[in-house]
């Protein structure tokens, strides 16, 4: 017996409406998935929600002070220490720090705010406890004083390294304060530019008696 053909399906108003399309996955930078809805009503609802959240965020920012939200202040981020455990110093300390660098040309820094994007020259007092570092600084100072003696007709001899500040950009720079002997003890300042990528290449842009009125050693 031949199979009986099934009746063709006729559309009617009683049929259920088709299911809404599934959202398409959209890969985000965070590694998760978000979904894009093709349904206009759903999309309008999402837009409204986002707009409401943006409005609340803007109102919150307007009512907050700089102290309440320091992380929003881009300028302050440059003055924050690299290490979260370090103390954030006040603006007055930064002003003194920059003034001391300017006035002493990097040799006398009493108020160091700590390692941060805006800090440049830094004290290297901890390194003075290492014999190898001290020998290196004495050798740099000796070469600088020899150049000074040849130019000025003097006969200074390096006595003691008192303090060292450092600064690194393209090359490493040392700001050395030392005592010298020439009948009696005197103080000198030596700036050394150590071109690390060049063997035995040193420059001494500053070799001079220590400026009077500087900060205490």
Automatic annotation (TrEMBL):
Ranges of residues in domain Cystatin: 135-184
Acidic residues composition bias: residue spans: 53-65
Highest taxon listed in the record's lineage: Eukaryota
Signal peptide: none
Location of region: Disordered: 1-72
Keywords: Protease inhibitor, Thiol protease inhibitor
Record bears the keyword Mitochondrion: no
GO molecular function: cysteine-type endopeptidase inhibitor activity
Family matches, as Pfam families: Cystatin
UniProt keyword annotation of Glycoprotein present: no
Designated name of the protein: Cystatin domain-containing protein
